[in-house]
């Protein structure tokens, strides 16, 4: 029997596992060597920190961050990392895939020297495929929250078998991370800039000068984002087209100055022969600006104007005018290679005809034999494309309308954006106006960044109390965007607030402290501190934990530890009674004798007498309740159900009930508007294509739809909506809050006698012409006075004029 083969000997670990080979390249932070991985017996590349950088903590952090970024970015066009080796608690080197090939810069240098093999192997079409793969890699990196910040041809490796890899992620930065290592300009491509001082650099300069974005050149690192990488991609495309970087100069300072001022000649401007044909430029040398003609790798030696426009759009000085994403840049490259016009060149009719003919070469050549037939046919093809575009536009508008009816905001916006700008008609304008009907986020510097609760200030138009997690409560005017008063509670954290219905008192508390604080809202002074229970358990933001009665003399306060709530007499600070229920919402009954609560996942509302705490249940609901609200006139209680129904109780007679289905979704939160109608949010189901359904407004009597209001951004449907019932403003509980003004208040009613029928028409945005019948107008209430308009009567041709501040003016011909 043959002896067993000897057991394999495990290879050494750490640095001893690698057998070093020749140096491949070196840079300002380290060297790249060829090596053999002993564990797997394969060739790898290793990147080693330079010895003189080992003592520099910032350089070690950069080196480690580069390895971590490579580990994050698993993509076919990003060099993969295999291992990182530590020694003496410091990163020594990391191993990665060994790519046999050449850098894009070396290929461009050979093209510049008119090397026959390079000209054969790398025509413009192949260079664009290489560029396209680089864009794929950067688009993926951006999707993972990573910026490269040092894109250039030298950092792009083209393998022997056509693979394209983006290398050298040493200056990479994670978005939304403050970690950054300020260093000087890349030593490989520039001279030392340390002598220039902050007056010139305005901060740290990161990257290679010729491909550096203006914001990087100015040292404005806070302004560096994805569009800075897009600028560098534009520089690489520029180099592919012209065989030289977009900016050149005799010194690095000159280059930085040109970059900062956006002094870049369009690629199509390179029309004179260069005397530097075949010259090899040393590493670190800054080239002098010269012009080349012909460009040997391009057809006819000239840069295509479409690609020149694409490069210059990516290289714009104002980053807001660059491509908004790498995908948009890729789309223009695809348009060019497919024979279509790019968005950057703004092609006119003649250009479109030219591209059409190029896309239909066989047809064009055949038609050229008969000039008259050719012209007729071309116009026919153009007309067909125009008709097709018009048909497509009509179909997209119809699709957008159908998506709007299904509350699919994402589908509506996608369909609207697909309509060419020249074909956007009145129907398109109408649907486009539905994208966002909010008044934008409420931004007050230093206050609305991190809020925990919102409450209306009764009888004060456009005023809200906003609780900040830093322990302050601010009284805010949402029309003037001013902070009117600040109450310092000294209780940072999840601060909750409640205001008495008469607007005199405000009560606040956090669950991690054992006191609630009562404020006089008129003077802003602290009235007293009330002892309450504390808890370290988190409380959902959609749970109401405190409530004041109409004059601020009683408070209902939840107790999370005991799963109960207490009624506290604020004049003495004593607990009048306790009940073993945990409310999700609660309010004091308008009769001043009861407290109504709604528990989570309950089929009933509970009512408690204020004197003794006697508990009885209101009639059973049709389905589980999700939200409840008391009408502004205190006459009805509306309850939202998971079934999409709304059920009503008469406040003074709970047996007087009605119910109607108003939504196919679960109703998340419900509120009464200033016009005594119902506003609610929905919870999207798994089949919904939009993450945030719109706000919906329904008539409180007929429960018929009055309108949908789009524009909620990343807002959970079960979060509270806060309504100022004096002015009609609505705030959402998010950071920052979104502001709305719901137009459901009847501003004027025009009643005209006679039985001849009626008709009306808007003569302008502010003038309504009516004849006969009755016309009811709905518009915003006055933000400053809360006025809701008046009834106007006339005999004929009344004209109703509304001013821009929401007040209604009339002119009658009597």
Account of the 3D structure:
The structure is a single chain. 22% of the residues lie in helices and 29% in strands. By secondary structure, it is α+β, with helices and mostly antiparallel strands. It folds into 5 domains: 84 residues, Phosphorylase Kinase, domain 1, CATH 3.30.200; 243 residues, Transferase(Phosphotransferase) domain 1 (Transferase(Phosphotransferase), domain 1, Orthogonal Bundle), CATH 1.10.510; 77 residues, no CATH class; 292 residues, 7 Propeller (Methylamine Dehydrogenase, Chain H), CATH 2.130.10.10; 68 residues, no CATH class. The strands form 12 sheets. It has a 5-stranded antiparallel sheet with strand order 1-2-3-5-4, covered by helices on one side. It has a 4-stranded antiparallel sheet with strand order 11-12-13-14, with no helix packed on it. Strand 33 and strand 34 form a beta hairpin.
What's a quick, concise take on this entry?
By secondary structure, this protein is an alpha+beta fold. Helices cover 22% and strands 29% of the residues. The chain is built from 15 helices and 44 strands.
Strand order of the largest sheet: 1-2-3-5-4
Total helix count?
15
Strand content bin: 25-35%
Based on Cα principal axes, name the global outline. globular
How widely separated are the two ends? Answer: 123 Å
What is the subunit organization of this protein?
single chain
CATH topology grouping of the largest domain = Methylamine Dehydrogenase, Chain H
CATH architecture of the largest domain: 7 Propeller
Rg over C-alpha atoms, rounded to the nearest angstrom: 35 Å
* Total count of strands: 44
**Helical residue percent?**
10-25%
Q: Tell me about the largest β-sheet.
A: 5 strands, antiparallel
SSE-based structural type: alpha+beta
Overall mean confidence score, pLDDT: 79
Number of domains: 5
CATH homologous superfamily of the largest domain, by name? YVTN repeat-like/Quinoprotein amine dehydrogenase
Poorly predicted runs of 5 or more residues: 181-204, 272-292, 686-690, 754-758, 772-814
CATH class of the largest domain: Mainly Beta
